[in-house]
Structures are given as C-alpha cells and as structure tokens.
Amino acid sequence: MAERRFRRRGAVVAAGVVAVGGCGAPLDDGRGGEQVDVVRRAASVLVDARSSKAHTSMEMATGGTRVTIRGEGVYDFRRHVGRLKVLLPQGPAGDSSQRAITELLAPGALFMKNRGAGVPADKWVRVETASISDGNLVTGGATDPSAAAQLLLGVKSVSYVGQEQLAGTDVTHYRGTADLRLAAQRASDGTRDSLAAAAKGFASPRVPFDVYLDEQGRIRKVRHRFSFVNGQQKDAVAVASTTLLFDFGVPVDVRLPDRDDIYAGRIAEE
Questions:
Q1: CATH fold of 2-247, please?
Q2: pTM of the entire structure?
Q3: What is the pLDDT of residue 2?
Q4: Which of 73, 104, 103, 101 lies closest to 88 in space, CA to CA?
Q5: What does the domain layout of the chain look like in residue ranges?
Q6: How many other CB atoms sit within 10 Å of the CB of residue 32?
Q7: Within 13 A of 41's CA, how many CA atoms are on the CB side?
C-alpha cells in the first residue's frame, strides 16, 4: 500500500514533494501573562473566523543546498479541511516548468494529485499524517494552516516585538518558542496525533516561531523553524515554514476523494 511506502521513505522524501532531503520581557514558564494568552488564543480565533485564503512558503537548507516550495489555496478552520496548489522547485537542470501538486488537507490525512512517480494522473495518493515522522508539518511542502495555528497552543515563551504593517493591515508581532508535545496535548482531535508524531520525529520538540496577529487576534502570518533528521542524511535539515492568511470568511468547497479515486499501488522512487 502507498502508506507503507511513505513510512519507509521518511519525512520529506516520503511525499516526494521536496527535492532535497525583540522588545518586552519573555514569559518563560508559559503558564500566565497576557502575551502567552493572546498567542494561545490565536487558533480558536481562526475557528471563529471560519475560513481564509492562504499562501504558504517552505524553505529548506541542507548540505549547502536551499530550496523553496510555494503554495496557495483556501482553508476551513471549522471543518479542518483545505485545498492547496503547491509548486515544486525547478529541477537541477534549471527547467523553467514547475510541476504543481494539488493537495487536500483533512483531519489525519493528506491527499495529493499529480503526485508523479508512476501514480496515474487521475488518481489521488492518500497519506495518514500521524504515520509520518513530521506529522505533515513538512512532508507536503506546506504546513497545514490549522496545525500551524494549533502548534501555538504549546507556547513556552513569548515576547512582544512591536507593531507593524503587513499587506496594509496593522499587526502585532510576537516571537517565541513552542513545544510540540504540549501543543499535541492541547490540540483538537484531528490535529493531535499529527503534532504528537512530529514531537517524536523532529530533532527537537522545541519550535521557534514568529507570529503576526491583527486587531481581532487572527493570525495574518506565522513562521515556524523546524529541525529534523531526514532518513537519507545524517545532518539535521533546517526548515522555515511560513503561512499567510487573508480574506477571512471566504467560501471553501473541498470534496475529499472517493475510495475508487485513491491510488493503492506502489509508489516509485523519484
């Protein structure tokens, strides 16, 4: 089955999406303080906002090589479902054409179309996110927007950086560190197992972040910095994942694939 193949191949290479493997006083105990509470509330504020458009960017650096994967789409924070179009980086020959993968995000699962590697063009590949070592914070080439927000439930320290403008919107910039294990304990049912898998699979459960909240407390931008060990490399891979959210309340129509539309064959190496 496809899921078994993904587990053997490890986090980033598993999905085949990646080509290579302030101001203010910090509140270190994470148990109180207005800044900690504001950041922790961001995930529930997004649920109240219902939905948004999203732009994503994932930068990876290993062995002197750096690649960036970009995506765009929509996400429903109440149903925890979304759709992203993810553009893979150019090949080593500098081919200007970039393959676009359509990804459907759902509680506990990632669906990919135009996956390549011998998968028929009209079929989807399904991956159980709790079965991969990064919980799909990295594998799909874009961090699930709900997981990106709920990771902030594990905030351990946070400091106020300042007031800024982001795409014409006034935002408050906070910087801190979250703990994946703590986030998993506090996350919703659809995200808990994925964050718990990441807590075990990453080089460290501590995740530095920068988050920018608007006047309603909604996340406009969040940037996480992950570190994990790819199964094909000895050194840790540094990953910076950025999610931009805007146009809150937009309609989101996501239909998950039927069983007959999901590819169950062997996934070839790319």
A1: outer membrane lipoprotein receptor (LolB), chain A (2.50.20)
A2: 0.84
A3: 39
A4: 101
A5: 2-247
A6: 9
A7: 15
